[in-house]
Specification:
Shape of chain A: elongated
CATH class of chain B: Alpha Beta
Radius of gyration of chain B: 18 Å
Number of strands of chain B: 15
Helix content of chain A: 10-25%
Helix content of chain B: 25-40%
Number of strands of chain A: 11
Radius of gyration of chain A: 19 Å
Largest sheet of chain B: 6 strands, antiparallel
CATH class of the largest domain in chain A: Mainly Beta
Order of helices and strands of chain B: EHEEHEEHEEHEEEHHHEEEEHE
Shape of chain B: globular
CATH topology of the largest domain in chain A: Pectate Lyase C-like
Structural class of chain B: alpha+beta
CATH superfamily of the largest domain in chain A: Glutamate synthase, alpha subunit, C-terminal domain
Structural class of chain A: alpha/beta
Number of domains of chain A: 2
CATH superfamily of chain B: Aminohydrolase, N-terminal nucleophile (Ntn) domain
CATH architecture of the largest domain in chain A: 3 Solenoid
Largest sheet of chain A: 11 strands, mixed
Number of helices of chain B: 8
Oligomer: heterodimer
Order of helices and strands of chain A: HHEHEEEEEEEEEHEH
Number of domains of chain B: 1
Strand order of the largest sheet of chain A: 1-2-3-4-5-6-7-8-9-11-10
Distance between the termini of chain B: 30 Å
């Protein structure tokens, strides 16, 4: 196991498997700085008190009105908001760029919690397609099942579903962690670029298809591997990280992580246009 | 886009017209060019119910033309004479709209092919459905518009499927609206959300084998494809499973018969479907809000996976 205390930021993140590519040219690689993050606030965000709690019944409200009211409550300093009767409405809780405890007493429709940065969310129900799309930071926990495109294009944070999820989970994800207690559908990790996916159950066909980078851990059966997704050795540091993550996620704490399958990018698709014709054949 | 919804009660009859209207109206943002209902009502099972149109409600991009009511009147006369000429008896007739009719017909023959061919030989006439329980009602507008126009809130039965359409591949008119009848099989109907990419290849093959297409809508292919499988002796479920490879493109579709309801999802799982299943009710739709229209309380739902086929029987 790498000594994480003594390594610099760059090699530390690579040792933990968060990414493995070496970026060159004009691409800038920027690393997370905890002290900067703590003092960073978006324009128009609020200083809230987590002990100040309020219930919000959205049964008769449109999603837009509900989201405006959440913003209004945060502006009044409420740090814990409980949403009653979401009843499968779409686009609830989107665009929250604030520290906030948000609890949904029921299920969400499509695009729930999209484009958020910072809130801690618990959904005591199910979510539809594209839950937490583009999540930057924070934690979203779903107690039941989730639809397709779960965690599409997330860049950070923890996205946890205790039930099963649909197809294309983690499509195009660029960071963060997705944890699923049940099964996942086809094309899990499709074109993922960074970050990690943990599925404790089975997954469908074309797992990790065309993934650029990142890591997928599967606890159950795999329908089939997608293009350029390959199995890799499960290291001690992987297992330590998995145990820690599952504990924080409140699922699979007794799960035997040593039996999980680790999948990474074969990287034959990298610079595909520059490959020789015979190399292109082997890449797909 | 487009939205589909369906429900089946295993042990009772309810006001399915009203319930399906609620589900489809919740999906109207997915398309309200036209809306269609396939309702399986309670009947004595003696007579066929024939829903047919003698003209079009012409919307944007339609290849049909608007006609005078007097033209419809002439067509209705010919249809009636054809029905009587084939030894059938009209028990009840209802002209719901100038171009849309509902007949109850007593007809002893089991094969509806010749009967349908004769009726549809009248220019501008199309049978929307024929069955001892099934009634297909479709027209332009959203679910509530169509429900109100056709008084569907009075229909009581066990199951139904429906479709809210955003026209993409063909024009806005009744002939391109869903559901499609599984001609010539009694009580078979289909609704589809998605896009089929091998429509023309399949259509040519099926037409060469004597199957009938009435529109240029790619979704009609599913009804015809399944009808061909049934004609060849397959069960409904076998036909649906074959469609996963026989049809190319992205799709989630529902098919209903007199006593069953089924769903199929393509192998890419590219089109949405949320499903609720209990001991006495199955309700499903493109989005959870469709199910919430009839079950507002907190329920457990899930997304079926890629390549999944399910059939429920009463």
């Amino acid at each position: 196991m790498a000594n994480l205390k003594t390594t610099d930021k760059k090699s530390k993140s690579q040792s933990m498997g968060m990414h493995s590519e070496v970026l060159t040219g004009r691409t800038q690689q920027k690393f997370f700085n905890p002290s900067e993050a703590e003092s960073f606030y978006y324009f128009g965000t609020y200083d809230v008190d987590f002990n100040k709690r309020i219930d919000l019944d959205v049964k008769e409200m449109t999603a837009a009105d509900a989201n405006k009211e959440i913003d209004n409550l945060m502006s009044q300093g409420y740090g814990t908001i409980v949403i009653k009767n979401p009843q499968g409405k779409h686009s609830l809780g989107v665009g929250i760029l604030n520290k906030l405890n948000l609890i949904f007493e029921g299920s969400l429709g499509y695009f729930g919690m999209g484009s958020c940065d910072g809130p801690t969310v618990r959904i005591n129900g199910r979510v539809g397609w594209s839950c937490a799309e583009n999540l930057m930071a924070g934690k979203v926990v779903i107690e039941k099942n989730a639809g397709s495109c779960f965690g599409a294009a997330i860049r950070g944070g923890d996205l946890i579903c205790k039930g099963s999820v649909g197809a294309r989970t983690g499509i195009d994800m660029k960071g963060g962690t997705i944890i699923v207690g049940g099964d996942a559908g086809a094309f899990t990790g499709f074109m993922m670029q960074r970050g990690r996916i943990i599925i404790l159950g089975d997954v469908g066909i074309n797992l990790g298809d065309s993934m650029y980078d990142g890591t997928i851990f599967i606890g159950g059966k795999i329908g089939s591997f997608g293009s350029d997704a390959v199995p890799s050795d499960l290291t001690d540091s992987d297992q330590d990280w998995l145990k820690r993550k599952l504990k924080v996620a409140e699922i699979g704490e007794k799960f035997d992580v040593s039996k999980m399958t680790k999948i990474v990018a074969g990287k034959k698709l990298w610079n595909y246009d520059n490959l020789e014709p015979h190399e292109k054949k082997g890449a797909i | 886009m487009c939205g589909i919804a369906g429900l089946i009660y295993k042990d009772k009859s309810v006001n399915i017209g009203t319930q399906l209207q609620g589900m489809l109206q919740a999906l109207k943002h997915r398309g309200e060019d036209s809306t269609g209902y396939a309702l399986y009502g309670d009947t004595d099972g003696e007579n066929f119910i024939m829903r047919f149109k003698v003209g079009e409600n012409v919307g944007e991009g339609s290849s049909s033309v608007s006609e005078e009511t007097s033209v419809y009147d002439e067509r209705i006369k010919i249809v009636k004479s054809h029905i009587l000429g084939m030894g059938a008896k009209i028990i009840k007739e209802e002209r719901v709209l100038p171009y849309s009719l509902r007949y109850e017909v007593n007809y002893d023959e089991k094969d509806l092919r010749e009967f349908s061919r004769k009726i549809e030989s009248v220019p501008g006439v199309e049978i929307l459905s024929m069955g001892k329980s099934l009634e297909v009602i479709k027209d332009l507008g959203n679910a509530k518009d169509v429900c109100d126009r056709y008084n569907l809130d009075k229909i009581v039965g066990t199951h139904a499927i429906g479709h809210a359409r955003m026209a993409t591949e063909s024009g806005v008119d009744i002939k391109s609206a869903h559901p499609f009848w599984g001609y010539p099989f009694s009580d078979v109907s289909v609704v589809h959300n998605g896009q089929l990419t091998n429509y023309w290849n399949n259509r040519r093959l099926l037409e060469n084998e004597g199957m009938r297409f009435m529109s240029e809508c790619d979704s009609e292919l599913i009804a015809v494809y399944l009808a061909k499988k049934l004609r060849d002796g397959a069960t409904l479920e076998e036909g649906m499973k074959a469609s996963l490879t026989g049809l190319d493109g992205v799709f989630t579709y529902f098919v209903a018969t007199k006593d069953s309801l089924g769903m199929a999802k393509d192998t890419m799982a590219a089109k949405p479907l949320v499903l609720y299943e209990s001991d006495n009710l199955i309700a499903m739709g493109s989005e959870e809000i469709a199910i919430r229209a009839i079950l507002p309380q907190e329920i457990d739902t899930y997304d079926p996976y890629d390549g999944e086929v399910k059939v429920w029987q009463i």
